Amino acid sequence: MTMTSTDSMPALKRRYRDEVLPVLTSEFGLRNPMQVPSLVKISVNIGLGEALTNGRAVESATADLATITGQRPIVNRAKKAISNFKLREGNPIGVSLTLRGNRMWEFYYRLVNTALPRVRDFRGVPANAFDGRGNYALGLTEQLIFPEISFDSVERVRGMQVNIITSAPNDEQGKRLLELLGMPFVKS
To answer: Which pTM does this prediction carry?
Structure first.
């Protein structure tokens, strides 16, 4: 039995192709399927201010991010020395990674359907965090909302920034794309 390209396609990507794409095409009056907004990439990063005093912070954050996303992050280093923060050039100050392709679709699905509902007193994500070009920024206060992270293995609770980059030309189309893909925006 040969494996076709749709067999390895994530369920959310298949749903985008079969359900979301036709809806967006008709709602925005787009004729060319290449004009329809889609997810381009998801950037995830953790800032590590405590890395200056705690040597294990970078290793711990790297392990957490790799467990959550299935991809190894890079370590971001300071470009300039800032004496007020006791920061020297080259010191590690964070970890980040960019997800594309199937990993991006799978991460988005787990974020929306598994992680966000686990946030305490969750009522939805703010709808005003768009940048004017259809991209969405979401700040998470702890990595423990992801079920892959064991509470016992966590050295310290850390927040993370998730940036969802879309091909939408404006916020209206970007928001509608994310809504159709299951993003739970706060009802206004």
So the answer is: 0.87
Question: Could you state, in order of their start, the residue ranges of all structural domains in the chain?
Answer: 37-180
Concatenating the DSSP letter of every residue in the chain gives -PPPTTTTS-HHHHHIIIIIHHHHHHHHT--SGGGS--EEEEEEEEE-GGGGT-TTHHHHHHHHHHHHHSSPPEEEE-SS-BGGGTB-TT-EEEEEEEE-HHHHHHHHHHIIIIIGGGSTT---B-TT-B-SSS-EEEEES-GGGSTTS-GGG-SS---EEEEEEE--SSHHHHHHHHHHTT--BPP-
Give pLDDT tens digits for 96-140. 999 999 999 999 999 999 999 888 888 899 999 999 999 999 999
* 37-180 classified as CATH 3.30.1440.10: yes
